[in-house]
Amino acid sequence: MRLMNSKPSRGMRLALNLLPFVILLIIYTLASDARLLENPSDKLLPSWSSFADAVQRMAFEPSKRTGEYLLWVDSAASLQRLLLGVGISAFIGLIVGVVSGMLPLFRATFSPLVTAISLIPPMAILPILFIVFGLGELSKVMLIIIGICPILIRDLQLRTQSLPKEQLLKAQTLGANSWQIMIRVVLPQVLPPLVSAVRLTLGSAWLFLIAGEAIAATEGLGYRIFLIRRYLAMDVILPYVLWIAVLAFLMDTILRLISKRAFPWYHGRGADAHE
Amino acid sequence: MSKAIIEIKQVWKEYGDHVVLEKLNLNVQAGEFISIVGASGCGKTSLLNMLLGTEKQSRGSILLDGKPMPQEPNATRGIVFQKYSAFPHLNALENVMLGGEFASSPLLGKVFGNERKKLREQALEMLTAVGLADAALRYPSELSGGMQQRLAIAQALIKEPRILLLDEPFGALDPGIRKDMHKLIRELWKKRGLTVFMITHDLSEGFSLGSRVWVLDKPRIDPHQPERFGAQVVYDIDINSEHKLSNSIQSLIEKQQAAKVAV
C-alpha cells in the first residue's frame, strides 16, 4: 500500500500523538541527569524534583517578600491585560470591519489608514506608548490592541465583502435598510469568522503582552520570566512557559467550543465544514 | 387595454464602448410571465439588473406604473437567484419571517411577543404553500438544492411583491426536481397574479412556463468590432395566442434539445 493511503487506527493515532512528547521528555531527563552528575549545582537543565519545588514555591506558598501566591497573581494580571486587549480589539475589529466592508464611502475613507497602521511594527511604537500612556496597565493593553486590531479589522472587512452579493440584494428586496441589513444579515454571519480570527491572533496577543510586561510591569507572567532570568532560574522559567502554553491552549479550546455551540449553522452538517 | 406595469422605452445599455443592449421597446402587462432566453453574454442579466434596480440604463427610460424605476432594489420587486438567496444563519422559518420583521421593526429588524407569533404563522403558511412545512426548523445548509430554491421563493413572496424576478432559478437543479419546481412556480404565478420575469438557459423551460418569451440576440454583427452592436429582443412571442412558432425558433429548440441528448 502507498504510504499516503495508510491511516492510523484510533489507538495507534493516540500513541503517535503522544510519541514526540514522550521522546522529548526522555531526552530532557537524560540530558539533565548527565549535566547534574557533572555539576550538582547546574542551573541550565534542572531535575524534575527542582521543578516540583519551584512550582510548590511559586504556586502554593505565599512569597516571603510580599505574602502573595506569585503564580496566581502573575496569571491574573496577565490574563486581565490579555482579555482586555483582545476583547477591545475584537469589538473594534467587528464594528469597523463590518462598517467598512458594507459601506463603500466609509471604506474609501478609512481602509488606507488601517492598512498603513497595520504596516507599522507595534514593537517599534512601544516606547511611544510608554511615553504617552505611562508605565501602567493602559500602555500594555494598548500595545495588544495596536498589534492585533488592524489584523482583525482587515479580516472582518474581507469577510463582510465576501458575503455573496445575492444575499445583500435579496435583503434589499425584502425591504431592509442598510442598518437592518447590517445587524440582521451581515453581523450574525461574520461572528463565527470573528471567533476564528481572534483564535488566530491570540498568539500575537501573547507575544505583545509578554513583550510589554518584560519591559515595564510589577507583576505578570512575562514580567516574572524576565525578572528571574537574571538568576538563571530555569526551574521557574520552564514551568511558567508551560503554564502560558496551557492557558493559550485553554483559551483556544474555549473559543472553539463557544463557536460550535453558538453557531451551529456555521459548523453544522452539510455546511462547508468549517473547523 | 389595462395600463402596462412596466414600460421599457428606447433603452440602451452600454459599458464604455461595449454596447450590450440596444433599442429595447417593450411593454409588460400585469400578470404576464416573461421568459428571457438568449446566448450567454447577450445581456439577459443586464436587463434583469435594470429591472431590479442595481444597474441603470445608459439611454432611454424604464417605467414602473408610469413612474421611473427606483434606482435601488426594494420590496416591489422580489428576486430569486440561482443560489445564495437564503440566509445561512437563519433556519427556514426565520428566513421567511425576516421580510415581515424588517417592515415592523426598523430599529432592531426583529420582533417579539404577539407580533412574532403572527409573523410565524404567516411564514408557516407560506412554507406550507411551497411544500417546506416539514423543514421549517432546518438551516439552508441542511436543505437540498430544490428545497433551498423553494425557500428562496417563499422568502420573496411573503413580501407580496407585484413583480418577481427569477435569475436562472432552476439552473442548478436535477431534471426531476426541476419539473416539480415548474409546477410550483406556475401555481404560485396564477394564484397570486404575479408579474414574473425569468432568465433561463433552457429554451423548453422558457416556452413551457412563460406566457411570453423574449429572445435576446444580436441582429447586426460587425466582425471587426463585435462590441459595436448590442443585443435586441429579436423575437417577442406571445405563447397564449395560437400563432405557430416561427420556424427559426422551432429549429432553435430542436437544436438545443439535440445538444442536450448529445451531452
From TrEMBL, chain A:
Pfam families per the UniProt record, alphabetical: BPD_transp_1 (PF00528)
Domain ABC transmembrane type-1 residue range list: 79-259
Topology term for the membrane: Multi-pass membrane protein
Main location: membrane
Transmembrane segments: 82-106, 113-135, 231-251
Cited Gene3D superfamilies: MetI-like
Database matches in InterPro entries: MetI-like, MetI-like_sf
CDD domains the UniProt entry points to: TM_PBP2
Keywords annotated in UniProt: Cell membrane, Membrane, Transmembrane, Transmembrane helix, Transport
Cellular location(s): Cell membrane
Superkingdom assignment: Bacteria
Family of the protein in this entry: Belongs to the binding-protein-dependent transport system permease family.
Protein name per its UniProtKB record: ABC transporter permease
Organism: Psychromonas marina
UniProtKB/TrEMBL annotation, chain B:
Keyword vocabulary terms for this entry: ATP-binding, Nucleotide-binding, Transport
Keyword check for Transport: yes
Domain ABC transporter: 6-243
Matching CDD domains: ABC_NrtD_SsuB_transporters
Molecular function via GO: ATP binding
Keyword Transport included in the entry's annotation: yes
PANTHER family hit by this protein: SPERMIDINE/PUTRESCINE IMPORT ATP-BINDING PROTEIN POTA, SPERMIDINE_PUTRESCINE IMPORT ATP-BINDING PROTEIN POTA
Name of protein: ABC transporter ATP-binding protein
Organism of origin: Psychromonas marina
